[in-house]
Amino acid sequence: MAEETMQFKTELEQLLHLITHSLYSHREVFLRELISNAADAIDKVRFEGLNNEAILEGDSDWKISIKADEAAKTLTISDNGIGMSRDQIIENLGTIAHSGTKQFLARAKETGLENNPELIGQFGVGFYSSFMVADDVTVVSKAHGEPAVKWESKGVGEFTLSEADKEKRGTEITLHLKDDAEEYLDEWTIRSTVKKFSDFLEHPVVLITKEKDEETEIEEEKEEQINSQKAIWLRPKSEITDEEYGEFYKHISHDTNHPAETIHYNAEGAIEFKALLFIPEHKPFDMMWNNDPKAHLNLYVQRVFIGNDFDNLLPGYLRFVKGVVDSSDLPLNVSREILQENPMLDKIRKNLTTRILKTLANMKKTDFDEFKIFHENFSAILKEGLQTDWENREKIAELLLFESTAKAAGEKTCFDDYVENMAEGQEEILYLAGENRASIENSPYLEKFKADGKEVLLMIDPIDDFVIPQLFEFKGKKLKAVNKGDLEEDKEKLKDEVKEFEGYIGFAKKLLGSVKEVKLTTRLKDSAAVLVGDEYSMSPHIEEMMRRMGQEVPEREAVLELNPEHPVVKKVQAMFTADEKDPKVETLTRLLHDQAVIASGAKISDPAGFAARLNEMLV
Ligand code: ADP
């Protein structure tokens, strides 16, 4: 066969131009693409060999080799896969045999290839990514029973075909690297790129290096496997040791500890996939500074790594989970966007979510100590699910732990236990959110409930005050913040006092312009006054926190509630009745308000005035 020059098809021409010009920062993916093509070719011949042993030609020692030649500036990737005949090579590497190419072009123009390097692999145009790093690509290939053929191109306009010498079945792709891509001759770069993209490929990837024999001074080729080749999630559970799981977990999570839980299963039925998931015990290093709200599971389709940033593979509130999902039901040759919209992904997510929540529930039941550690580290993330995963909010709520007035500091209870211990006739789950236990456990808001023997959950995680109110109820029991909203019984019980205090209350309201209302309450036992927000307002300590973070917080309109049984309140009311103009009435009223502000966890806006008032009274 003489050398023959052929033109690329037009669309391919455009494609090559696009790839070589817009993917500079992601060009390392060329290696993944070539390795994954080689692995596919091996899978194909292995499969065909099942029915036709002759095709194997006695060579089934599957291997993908990489060899760098520094002098020639070439990188060669070879495999003993199925190989290509002359016709196949023209079809596969010279035309647009793939229906995907047109879509790819449309898509790439639409979204900008720079932002979507994954498009390349998923549209079946991976081979051409070699032109990102090479100015000349040679493919020598031999299929069973066919003569070897050589394809060569500079990636513009045309390619040539000629005969080649190659005895064994398979494909050898040699890239002549561009000047600015010589880093891919470097052993370390090759190793780390393979590790990153192809580590768990089922077939061995070997690096061929030259080594000089010290004595004979003869250079010899040395082969070294550089991928770990352990698709551990594909192996049966019973054959995998804890050490192996641990090692794999460490590899993908960069956590140095053992995982708290390992979840390994095959889903079968409507959708088939394999999942190997880990729940860490402690926050891995990257999570401490990485605020990415997305979950990052590694998605493999037929053992080929597709990506780890699919929005709908796992909900963000489970982002502490690390692991791998491998599905052979998902199509390999589609764009990232199309894959993202694939309904299978939703099914996988639902299945994974259920499984993870179940595992956590079980951990809480059987290993509470371990669960507590997990909770301490990850509950703030988990709680986001109360807002984002309507379907599972009750299951998430079941997993939450809280301090409580019925428990010593540091001890935890949960909603289920709370409900079980509810006092007779108690209808609501009572809670108080605050900065820390010490600051709220003696809060005036708790006085009445303590006296009535009712337990109050103490929520001291800053996120609680944002998410817990939105839960509204747990298993039919309404949630009620004890520092917000009206007390139902007040109206009934305080009829007489309300009349008696009418005049003074009116005075106080006028004096304290910032409060929404002044009224009497049965909420208090030992304290004189308290500020109460409306049912859906932010807690004062959260407002305080937001102010500290430089956020604008609107002036709060709270209700000042007074305890008509308290001696100070009684006294000031008596003074007011005796002489409305008595200046001490004003000072005392302001002091009642001041102490209510302090007790609520907020800051007094006029501390100097407060000190002056206090001193005036002390004197
Ligand atoms: P994809 O692999 O996604 O189909 P590529 O552009 O990477 O797209 O490759 C085009 C086709 O060329 C492949 O489908 C395959 O048929 C063929 N091919 C590529 N690399 C090899 C190889 N190493 N051995 C055999 N065939 C190959």
Characterize the structure shown.
- The chain has four domains: 4-225, Heat Shock Protein 90 (2-Layer Sandwich), CATH 3.30.565; 232-373, 2-Layer Sandwich (Ribosomal Protein S5, domain 2), CATH 3.30.230; 400-481, Rossmann fold, CATH 3.40.50; 489-618, Heat shock protein 90, C-terminal domain (Four Helix Bundle (Hemerythrin (Met), subunit A)).
- It contains 23 helices and 23 strands.
- The strands form four sheets. Strands 1-6-5-4-7-3-2-8-9 form a nine-stranded mixed beta sheet, covered by helices on one side. A six-stranded mixed beta sheet has the order 16-15-18-17-20-19. Strands 10-11-14-12-13 form a five-stranded mixed beta sheet, with helices on both faces.
- Strand 8 (205-212) and strand 9 (219-225) form a beta hairpin.
- It is elongated, with a radius of gyration of 35 Å.
- Residues 33, 37-38, 41, 79, 81-84, 92-93, 124-127, 171, 333 line the site of adenosine-5'-diphosphate.
What distinguishing features does this structure have?
619 residues; binds adenosine-5'-diphosphate; Rossmann fold; single chain; alpha+beta; nine-stranded mixed β-sheet; six-stranded mixed β-sheet; Heat Shock Protein 90; 20% strand
Q: Topology of this protein?
A:
Layout: E1 4-7, H1 10-22, H2 29-49, E2 64-69, E3 74-79, H3 86-94, H4 100-111, H5 118-122, E4 134-142, E5 149-153, E6 158-163, E7 170-177, H6 187-198, E8 205-212, E9 219-225, H7 242-253, E10 261-267, E11 273-279, H8 285-289, E12 298-301, E13 304-307, E14 322-327, H9 336-341, H10 343-366, H11 368-382, H12 384-388, H13 393-398, E15 401-404, E16 413-414, H14 415-420, E17 428-433, H15 437-440, H16 447-451, E18 457-459, H17 464-471, E19 473-474, E20 477-481, H18 488-493, H19 495-511, E21 517-520, E22 529-532, H20 540-548, E23 559-562, H21 567-578, H22 583-599, H23 607-618
Parallel strand pairs: 2-8, 12-14, 17-18, 17-20, 21-23
Antiparallel strand pairs: 1-6, 2-3, 3-7, 4-5, 4-7, 5-6, 8-9, 10-11, 11-14, 12-13, 15-16, 15-18, 19-20, 22-23
Helix pairs in contact: 1-4, 2-6, 10-11, 21-22, 22-23
